[in-house]
Write a structure and sequence with these properties.
The protein has 431 residues and is an alpha/beta fold. Helix content is 43%, strand content 13%.
């Protein structure tokens, strides 16, 4: 009998730790499930919620930690709530609160940045919070920012842009605005309108950079200043000899016509051949994005050749993709790239890093986000590659595709800005 009781007591003692272990595992699983549920349904918020933020470790994602990258994929697989333009309209109705909640009051300026102001032309049409986050990532009180919103944009988006311009003294709306249609002259004119306004600004900026709403910087402002100073007056943009297929874009007359898909209107090729470019200009091909010196822009504004070339480009397809690439090759322009020099491709120009689907696994690793018309919308697993490739900006980003990447780029850029500013003299707001 005593032996039987002893065995029962022994089994009970062995069972209790096992039960406790099982209960502990269940509790841990419940905590983990609750954590993930909270993470997906209730994103972490700052003291004043401005847009959705998520509880992720960006340093671990940068280091390609499989658990943290996996967490970002889990978040992305859920339906991501889009931040409404109306909420930015509401926040900018109180500029003081907006400055405080978004940290504009805390931005320091190094002596190097103050002496080398930059100008931006932002041609945008939707996703107001993404525009604000783009400006915030690049923000310096010494810079100046021109916003050109599409005349077709929603009333809420326009109100949000006007709110940004009202609250930020170095942000303004272009004095002349276009109804922008894809691949038409209107896209080029939108940038030209901002360049005209920026040229008459009291801010003596050194370089101007154009951006769209799905761009994001890969360098902090102080890093950009350091890189641009090295150009020593040269311009940075893609300029290559056009392929036979691209020559069709400016060899034939194009007409803006209604189309049945998302663009509404599109330049359509006709069979009518165009006259040769004026002044014997040799046309080069590139993209819509540039980094231009102040001297180059001043030359454009005063040049009859440039004015005639712009008029000639009116009925071409996507004139912004040959206009800048050609002008930088004109003899005698500030920062001229000689026509005899080799092509400057998009991978050689640091202005914009774009990942094309048909070049993945050849020139760069596969897209971890998703493709739209053969262009990669980047995912969080590409953050390390993006920051280390060497370009200054990249395209495309979309918070509906991967909100984690944008949030982590913001965090990394702020870290780098603070680190590089710590190495130099800087002026910070009082208080």
């Amino acid at each position: 009998m005593n032996t039987r009781c002893s065995l029962l007591r022994l089994r009970r003692k062995q069972f209790i730790p096992s039960l406790l272990t099982l209960l502990s595992i269940c509790v841990l699983l419940l905590v983990k499930y609750s954590y993930i549920t909270d993470l997906l349904l209730f994103p972490a918020a700052s003291d004043v919620q401005t847009f959705h933020r998520y509880n992720v470790n960006c340093s671990a994602i940068y280091d390609m930690d499989p658990v943290e990258v996996g967490k970002s994929l889990t978040i992305r697989s859920e339906k991501v709530v889009e931040d409404e333009d109306e909420s930015l309209v509401n926040y900018t109705s109180n500029c003081s609160s907006f400055h405080q909640s978004r940290g504009y009051n805390d931005v320091c300026v190094s002596k190097e940045e103050k002496n080398f102001p930059l100008a931006y032309s932002l041609v945008v049409h939707k996703s107001a919070w993404m525009v604000e986050r783009l400006i915030r990532a690049l923000y310096s009180p010494s810079n100046i920012y021109c916003i050109h919103y599409d005349q077709k944009s929603s009333a809420q988006f326009i109100s949000a842009m006007e709110g940004l311009a009202r609250c930020l003294p170095n942000v303004f709306i272009a004095s002349k605005r276009e109804s922008v249609f894809y691949a038409s002259i209107s896209r080029l004119k939108a940038d030209l309108n901002c360049l005209s306004d920026l040229s008459s600004s009291e801010v003596k900026w050194k370089y101007v950079i154009n951006l769209c709403g799905q761009d994001f910087p890969l360098r902090s402002n102080i890093e950009l200043v350091s890189e641009l100073k090295k150009l020593n007056g040269a311009n940075m943009l893609e300029t290559s000899r056009p392929s036979e297929s691209k020559k069709q874009r400016f060899t034939f007359h194009h007409e803006l016509k209604d189309v049945s898909f998302e663009y509404q209107k599109l330049p359509v090729k006709t069979e009518r051949k165009k006259s040769p470019p004026p002044h014997g200009i040799e046309v080069f091909s590139g993209n819509a994005y540039f980094v231009l010196s102040r001297e180059f822009v001043a030359h454009l504004n005063a040049s009859v050749v440039v004015k005639d070339f712009l008029a000639w480009s009116e009925d071409t397809y996507s004139p912004d993709e040959h206009f800048w690439a050609t002008l930088v090759r004109l003899p005698g322009v500030p920062g001229e790239v000689s026509r005899s020099q080799p092509d400057i491709t998009d991978l050689m120009s640091r202005t914009r890093l774009v990942k094309w689907q048909y070049l993945e696994d050849k020139l760069y690793p596969p897209c971890t986000g998703q493709h739209v018309r053969s262009v990669c919308i980047f995912g969080a697993a590409e953050m390390r590659w993006l920051l280390n490739y060497g370009h200054w900006f990249a395209n495309k980003f979309d918070p509906k595709v991967d909100p984690i990447l944008i949030q982590c780029l913001e965090e990394k850029l702020q870290e780098k800005q603070k680190f590089f500013q710590s190495q130099t003299l800087k002026t910070c707001p009082k208080g």
